[in-house]
Structures are given as structure tokens and as C-alpha cells.
Amino acid sequence: MDPTSSSNKETIIAIKTFVDAVSLPATDINTYLTNSGLVYVKQQTVGTSVTSVSVTSAFSADYDNYRVIYSSGVAGSAASMTFALTGSATGYYAAVDGCSYTGGTSSINEANNSSFSFAGIGTPEGNSLDVTLYNPFIAYRTGLQISGRVDIRGGGSAYCGGGFHNVASSFSGFTITCSAGLTGGIIYVYGFRKA
What we know:
Blueprint: H1 26-34, E1 38-45, E2 50-55, E3 65-70, E4 74-75, E5 79-85, E6 92-100, E7 105-113, E8 116-122, E9 128-134, E10 142-150, E11 157-165, E12 174-183, E13 186-192
Antiparallel strand pairs: 1-13, 2-12, 3-9, 3-13, 4-12, 5-8, 5-12, 6-7, 6-11, 8-9, 9-10, 10-11
């Protein structure tokens, strides 16, 4: 099979090493830029001792699916970070499983909550939130995958799971909340390239 054939549905990109002072063909640039999976959309700097951070203009028709990552900054104490779509305080369903580093498992179930209450965690040692959203801007139910609730304390735990927002509306932003207060770091938003 010829990986450069236009009939292939999947593009294969070879790893290429670029050298200083050598001309770079436009085809190389275009191949690397147009086939990257995640595309930077925006970032939001977190203030000092804030219990919530609202991120506006995060979702649009440019992408169907998005990833939100916040892995810097600290919290006043260990507390969960919640995730809610702007303007909607109902209809959040989720199932999350986790395990502590020293043993023991637990499950969290949410039905018609006011937010995804277990999306991330803030601690004095560092914060962790990594969620993927499916169709937040399209007027469908929004799916959410929680893949980065990782407590970086020695006696901590790690959780993953998912859920959905049972409101078929279009949303362009979100709010992250932590009762312990968040300080510093940057929330990054990426879109999944459609083609």
C-alpha cells in the first residue's frame, strides 16, 4: 500500500528532522500543519485564590470536539474541581472510577447534578484537570470524558470516567470551580481538527 496515495483515508506522516539554514518546502509545512490532531484555541490565566474561573468563547463551529487541560497552579487545600457549561446548572450525569495509590477503589455516580463535580482536583502540590468534550457547541447533548483527575500527593488517587450533559443546547464556554481556591496556572483549550 502506498502511504502517499490519495485513495488512502488515513494520512501517514514520517518523522522528519529539520536542519538550520536549509530551505523548507511548503509541502512539508502544509503536511505537518494540516494533519495535526489538536489545534490550540485559547488559554485563560487563573488568578489568585479564586473559587471559580469562567472561560468564554472556548467552543465554536470550527470544531465538534474539544479538550480542556489545567495542570498547573495550586489550591489552598485538596478539593475537587467541578466543570459546568456556561449558563447551565442542571442535567449533568457521570460515572467515575478511581483507585488510591496505597490501595482501595471507589466509584462516584452523578445523576442530574448541577455540574460534573469530579472533573479535576486541586491540591497545594498542584492541580489536575483533563477533560474531552463531544459536541459542546452543537445543539446536541454534550458528552464528557474525564481522563485527568490525578492527585499528585503521595497519599492521593487517580480517577477516570465520563458522562453527558442532558441539555441539547449550544454552549460556547465553561466554568471550573474549586471550593479550596485556585491560584496560578493556565487553562488551555484545544479543538480536534475535523479533516
